[in-house]
Amino acid sequence: MNGRKNDYTYSRINNLALAPHDFLIDCSENYHSKVNAAAKAVFDDTSKKIVMLAGPSSSGKTTTASLISSEISALGGKAYTVSLDDFYYPHSVGYPLDENGEPDYECVEALDIDLIHSCFRKLADCGRAELPVFNFNTGEREEKPRTVSLDENDVIIVEGLHALNPIITDTLDSEKLYKIYVSVSSRVYENDGSVLLSKRDLRFVRRMVRDYEFRSMTVERTFEIWGSVMRGEDKYLFPYEGFADIKLNSFHPCEPCVLAEKAISLLNGVEKGEYSEKAELLKNKLSLFKKIDYSILPRDSLLREFTG
Fold it and tell me: Per the confidence metrics, is the pTM higher than 0.85?
């Protein structure tokens, strides 16, 4: 490894974790400064009415969208956030099937593309549209849509896996779009320069903790669906990340320390079977990090999206 400033070994991270409060604040402030710069670029260009924000699973899209919205408000504008998930077809309509004959919720065709085009064109051209609201408990759209009206300094932030997909963006006026790609774009290294935690490892740990805390999902279930999630990213997201106007690296060097204790506890509960070897390997890696209680995370830290 070349020892660049942005490379993090577990030893370097553990040294920084000796001053945990400062470490967490620095990580959060560094990310906020990058997000604020992106928000200002959008606000300063009044032609940009729609921000398309894409990223893979557990990249921090929801929090990033919220942070951009807050900064635009601080600058004197207003930003509405919309998830492409609200444009899912109702479950009663059905979805395309994957190679295993199961509904493919990751594919772009699971979204009502015609409705997306109609709504976003109205927002870009007229500044007003009625947007669907999807109820994930019922698998249907709410009867009452959400009305959004944009004034001169207002924007709408559209976040989702497919937000950079040309199927969605190519029918819209490119002069009115600003495209952002957010992901974990760093790795954690062994002291000899080999990779200890890959970008996907880091996102998996985030997702595993979030799934358990907020979605009542077992670790085994997160392992089970992770393969499908990765295939969806490879097919529907990564080919289009180069279309982004700006890329945001949501990696927080403190996250292995913050998430390790909870993640190890969850991995300890994986019973011997299909995922036990993967769980043991990940647990051994996380055990190298100095633990930091995530109760001392700044309230506006992106990592709160996964810890609460």
Answer: yes
